[in-house]
């Protein structure tokens, strides 16, 4: 069990997480258990999946997988314990929603009444497309593994029909089946899974799984992250909207003043054709300025020196 150290509340149990919660990856419980079965040459074991392992050891293994990945498989020395844990995972999933979702269940049961295997294979392709993508991939990964198991039925005595009896009640099931129809629909569910196993290559055409669909360490860091508090997010959105709605808009002062902008006065340059007249006018303006400032008294003559000084003045 993973716990939040802040409020001491449960974050998750991997056995209770639906396939959609693994970030688009096949649940690691499925891939890890199948990988360990392959390491132990499961296909040569008689009665694999039909015979159960130790209940105590199976529960211990399921508890370990419920918390995290198993790093020490040596303590689970019985291959039947590992096989039983795989079946138990799908049984646990069916208590919430089976791998084949309830809205697809009726279609699966209905198509098994066609009684024409080739038509059933063709229709099954369309029915599986109705499943959420990761559920379809997980189902295909399991059926591919069970197909490999059935190929060694001469050793393990597990034909597609026998394997379907072990897995169908946990994969293709519904809690809404009327009691009077329960037996018949269970038989149809077994028939459907047996068809998926025996005709795997025809139904799951071009099916392949690479490591990008397996959970890695980065995924586990996301699994172990504290859950997102939706109430906190809603509060932050409210605060943001509140601040935005109460902002006093800033408008530059120049946009509010309607008076005409000040423009610096300009004057035309002197006319080259009348440069002497302009010079005379300039001297008269200078003399007028000097008279007004009483630097020259009226009636006094202007000495050549003064005249020279006056002519040196310039007006801007």
From TrEMBL:
UniProtKB keywords: GTPase activation
InterPro entries: Rho_GTPase_activation_prot (IPR008936), RhoGAP (IPR051025), RhoGAP_dom (IPR000198)
Region: Disordered, residue numbers: 295-316
One Pfam family this sequence matches: RhoGAP
SUPFAM superfamilies hit by this protein: GTPase activation domain, GAP
Gene3D superfamilies in alphabetical order: Rho GTPase activation protein
Gene Ontology biological-process entries: signal transduction
Rho-GAP domain mapped to chain residues: 9-204
PANTHER family: F-BAR DOMAIN-CONTAINING PROTEIN, SPERMATHECAL PHYSIOLOGY VARIANT
Protein name, entry field: RhoGAP domain containing protein
Entry's Gene Ontology molecular function annotations: GTPase activator activity
CDD domains, per database record: RhoGAP
């Amino acid at each position: 069990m993973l716990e939040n150290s802040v409020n001491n509340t449960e974050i998750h149990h991997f056995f209770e997480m639906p396939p959609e919660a693994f970030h688009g990856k096949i649940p690691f419980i499925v891939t890890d258990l199948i990988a360990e079965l392959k390491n132990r040459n499961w296909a040569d074991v008689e009665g694999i999946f039909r015979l159960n392992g130790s209940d105590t050891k199976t529960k211990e293994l399921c508890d370990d997988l419920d918390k995290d990945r198993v790093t020490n498989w040596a303590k689970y020395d019985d291959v039947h314990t590992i096989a039983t844990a795989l079946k138990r995972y799908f049984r646990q999933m069916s208590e919430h929603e089976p791998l084949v979702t309830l809205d697809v269940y009726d279609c699966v049961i209905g198509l098994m009444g066609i009684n024409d295997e080739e038509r059933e294979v063709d229709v099954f392709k369309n029915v599986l497309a109705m499943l959420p993508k990761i559920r379809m991939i997980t189902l295909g990964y399991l059926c591919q593994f069970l197909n490999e198991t059935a190929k060694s039925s001469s050793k393990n005595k597990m034909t597609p029909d026998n394997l379907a009896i072990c897995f169908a009640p946990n994969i293709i099931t519904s809690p809404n089946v009327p009691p009077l129809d329960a037996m018949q629909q269970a038989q149809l569910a077994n028939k459907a899974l047996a068809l998926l196993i025996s005709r795997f290559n025809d139904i799951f055409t071009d099916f392949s799984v690479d490591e990008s669909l397996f959970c890695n360490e980065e995924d586990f860091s996301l699994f172990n992250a504290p859950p997102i508090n939706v109430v906190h997010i809603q509060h932050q959105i409210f605060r943001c909207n509140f601040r935005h709605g109460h902002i006093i808009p800033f408008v530059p002062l120049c946009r509010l003043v309607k008076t005409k902008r000040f423009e610096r006065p300009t004057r035309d340059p002197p006319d080259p054709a009348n440069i002497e007249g302009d010079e005379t006018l300039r001297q008269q303006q200078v003399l007028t300025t000097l008279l007004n400032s009483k630097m020259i008294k009226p009636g006094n003559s202007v000495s050549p020196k003064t005249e020279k000084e006056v002519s040196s003045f310039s007006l801007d």
